[in-house]
Each structure stands twice: as C-alpha cells, then as structure tokens.
Design a protein that fits this description.
With 282 residues, the protein is of the alpha/beta class. Helix content is 41%, strand content 15%. The strands form two sheets. An eight-stranded parallel barrel has the order 1-2-5-6-7-8-9-10, surrounded by five helices. Helix 7 links the parallel strand 7 and strand 8.
Length: 282
Amino acid sequence: MRIGCFALVEPFCPMSRQFHAIAEMGIQYADLTDNHEGGMLGVEYGFAASVSLDSHPAKIREMAEAAGVTLTTFCAHANLLDPPSPDVYGTHQIIKAIRLAHLLGIKHVITTEGDPKTEFGHQLTTEQAIFAICERLYAPIRWAQELGIGLLLETHGRVTDSVEDMGRLLDALGHEQTVGICLDTGNSWLGGAEPLDYVKTFGDRIKHVHWKDMGLEWEQKRGSLFGCGMATVALGDGVIDLPAIVRALQGIGFDEATTLEIAGPENIRTSVARLNQWAAAG
C-alpha cells in the first residue's frame, strides 16, 4: 500500500512548501489538492497552496520533483448539485483537471457532488440529484476515457455517502472501466454509512482511499453532515474500525495509492506507522 499525504500541511504556504513538508515527514507520495482557474493573488504572493488548472505541467512537475514526491491523484472536488454558474467549480474545471492530470502522468482524478449551497440544490430528490450528477459528468467522463484517466467519485455528499445511492449513481454513469470510487473512510462514516460496506459492495471499483478517523465529538453530527476536510486525530484514535478496512482492502487485492487527510505532523507520522502495522498484520 502506498501512503501519501494531502498537500495542505502548513497554512499560508505555497504548494512547493507543501510538497517539501510532506517529504520531511518521510512520505514519498502526495495528491495535487487545491486548484483554481487562471491566476490567484495568494499564489503570486506565496500564501496560498493552490495550483492553476491553466498551468504548464512542467511548473507543477518540477515542484514535486524538487521535493522528491510522486503525485498520485488530482483533486477536482466539485459542486454538482447546484445550478451551473461561473463561480461554481463544476464540469469545466473537472475537464481541465483531467487534461492536466494526463499531462502530468497522474492516472486518477477525484471528484464528488459536494454539499449544495442553494435552495435549489437542497430541494432535489435523490433521483434528481443522480440525474444532475450524471449530466454534469457526461463530458468529463468522455475526456477521461479518451485520455486514459480514471475519474473517481469520492464519498463526500448525500448521494455518494450512501452505499445504495452510490450504486445507483455508478449504474447510471456506466463506463465501468473509467469511473471508479475514492473511499474516504471519515466522510462515508460521517455521512451515515459504514466505510467497510463500500469495500464489500464495490470491491475493485475502489481505486483510491482517503484515510481519516473521526473522534467521538462527531457522533452527534453523523448522518447530517456530508464531508469534512481533515481529521484532527491520528488513525486509530477515533471511532472507525480502520484495521478491518485495511484487511478488507487486502482481501480484494487493493494495490493502489492512498492519501492521509489528517491535521498535524505528529498525527500524520502516527497514522503512517499504524497503517503499516495493520497492513503487515494482514
């Protein structure tokens, strides 16, 4: 199992520093996390860890190589339930992420429906929500298929945080060789599902894992909150049975990269050690 890290480790630092901070913790893999179109003031002045979807790939490649890390995934988390708008990250940005990932040699782009911000989005029925996601991913899937990129749906929303509805969405999207799953262990639990059930139900459709454990303080929000950016505890210090998930992934022959979404260098180091221990124990 390859263990990587979310490239948002230190606040108010550029992406190049995020890569170096990851390497300094002894981790060799990273995702390409926050991104935007065009230019950004925070990037120009060195206090935002984001990359432009319009970047020349060499600019990003050289940052990663200078730190000695390998990029495994490209995050293109979107809002697929609200109406399209110029200020909403959606179809156009996902397509750009797929193109840039291809140029960078990254084989997986991760997206999700996210949490709607409008009354329109919140009033969608499940059937309407699935239709909206399919409509917004129609073109990105075809770009991914053309360029040999896996487009992965992360558990991070009212549809994807349900095993049943994730299955319905995958059936509706089709393209089984192109569309897969990124299992976020914390998000799926927080949304009300059991992370282990995704492994049992979808098997090798899972192509990437975001590792999180959740503390007891999240229990009261379970089933009503869809997704959180980072866990605040090390793996094994929360309520999720992560060793069982590791064993289940080994049972399906999972051999893909994974990403830690955990705040704090010590929590990250502890999590790496525990993941390796659980994997070795089988």
